[in-house]
Every structure is written in C-alpha cells, then in structure tokens.
Amino acid sequence: MGAIRTTGLTKRYDGVLAVDGLDLRVERGEVFGFLGPNGAGKSTVINLVLDFVRPTAGSATVLGYDSRTETTAIRRNTGIVPEGATLYERLTGREHLAWIARANGVEADVPALLDRVGLTIDDADRRVGGYSKGMGRRLALAMALVGDPELLILDEPSSGLDPAGIREFREIVREEAADGRTVFFSSHVLGQVEAVADRIGILNRGKLVATGTPAELRGSCGITQSIRFEV
Ligand code: ATP
Predict the structure, then answer these.
(1) d(CA 94, CA 143)
(2) Which atom of ligand 1 is nearest to the CA of 37?
(3) Which one of 2, 56, 112, 170 is separated from 162 by 20 to 30 angstroms, measured CA to CA?
(4) What is the pTM of this model?
C-alpha cells in the first residue's frame, strides 16, 4: 500500500485539461518531488487527491484510503501546507498551533513543534504579522505537523523564500523524512527538488513525463535539458 496512488486521474476545467490521465505512485517513507512549470497541474493533483475538487475521471488513494470516500481518515493522517498558506496576522504562532490542534481534536506539544521547525518560544508568543516570510512558512509547517501525520503534502513550500530560507526549509524536510515521514512536495524549480527528493516526478500539461531519482533524471540528458528550459 503506497502513500499516494492515482489511476487515470483526470480533471477538466471548461476548455483546460488540467490533469490528463495521471498514474502516479508515491511510496511510503520517500521524499517525492513533484516538479513542473507553472500551470502544469501540480496544485490540481494535490487538490484531487485530498478531495478538495472532484475528478472528471479516474481515482486516487492516499495511505490506502480512497480519496473520494475516506477523506476523514486521509485528513487525520496527512499534514498539508497549501500554496500561499494563509496565516492570521493578529494571532500569535502559539494561537495558530492551538487552533489547528482544537480543530483536529488533538493535543499540540508546542515546544516540540517549534523546535522541529526552528522557531523559538518567543517567536510563538509574537503576532504572525511581524514574522518574516521564512518564519511564516515554518509556522505553516508546524501547523501541518500537529497530530503527527504520516504524510506531509507541501505545495510550493519554498516559493518566495530567500536562499537561506530555502536551505532552512530543506533541512527541516530532511529531518522529518529521517523520522520516517513521507513527504510529497511540489515545486517549479529543479534545484529545490533535486536537493532533497529521493524521487522526482515531472509533470507537464497534466501528464507525468518522467519519474526517477535525481541521478537517473540527470543521466537522461534530453529530459534534464528540457526541465532546465521549462521551469
Ligand atoms: P502553479 O504553480 O502556477 O499553481 P500548477 O502546476 O499548480 O501551477 P494548476 O494550478 O494545477 O497548476 O493549474 C493547472 C491548469 O488548470 C492551469 O491551466 C490552470 O489555469 C487551470 N485551473 C486550475 N484551477 C482551475 C479552476 N478552478 N478553474 C479553471 N481552471 C483552473
């Protein structure tokens, strides 16, 4: 039973085929980088597997649960950082974590969560309006880690971060993966994906055009050239 499986997954919006018969396999325990240019369909795939939108055709499972009928089990075991995750400027970091914990009916070990994402207790007691972008992103990750999910789904987690922020975020992802968590994250930047992913899937126009380890994809020269060109 894999972490994510899709079979013929398809989503059509009016004239746009956003996801086109996708067969995706993400294994448990791996860091999977979902790479593709803007508009390739990455967010739509994430929205489909989490049942935020309904497929035109095909099916998906997450941790063995059916995306359309077993959503509650999927949400309980999956931490999500959506693209451009919304934080509430007037609330503190601690209040965000407490709110997510209440919403999920679980306890939040705030000091442990902060430690995992590199935020201090002082940070937690400040309003999020005063956070840097990187701190906000790390808080969003801490929120996703509440409830100790088996799978983390991160949509463009590094976008808009400066190089230091990207490096910090990458380290956190590595540590979470080392703890045995499956991490699925999307990006349109090859360098961000290959530095941390065990395997990469390349999406273009809603279709998977290549899958492999970073070394395998580097080895196939034509593919690497085209990624460099496109993203
Ligand atoms: P980005 O990183 O820019 O978000 P992406 O790879 O995540 O890119 P999607 O956001 O999934 O791509 O978009 C895939 C295609 O589907 C695009 O052509 C987009 O315009 C279209 N699309 C996505 N959501 C909708 C929607 N709700 N209604 C109409 N078209 C949509």
Answers:
(1) 10
(2) 6
(3) 112
(4) 0.91
Residue 55 C-alpha to ligand 1 middle, in angstroms? 14
Q: Which of 160, 97, 170, 157 is nearest to 128 (CA)?
A: 97
The predicted model gives 68-79 an average pLDDT of: 94
Cα-based distances in Å from 184 to 33, 43, 95, 223, 225: 6, 12, 27, 21, 24
Q: Is the pLDDT of residue 224 over 70?
A: no
- Burial bucket for residue 176 (CB in 10 Å: 0-12, 13-18, 19+): buried
Report whether 172 contacts 117 (CB < 8 A).
yes
State the DSSP string of 57-79.
Answer: EEEEEETTEETTT-HHHHHHHEE
Band (pLDDT 50/70/90 cuts) for residue 230 is very low
**pLDDT at residue 43 above 90?**
yes
Return d(Cα 48, Cα 116) in angstroms, integer: 29
Alpha helices in 160-210 (DSSP H): 163-178, 190-194
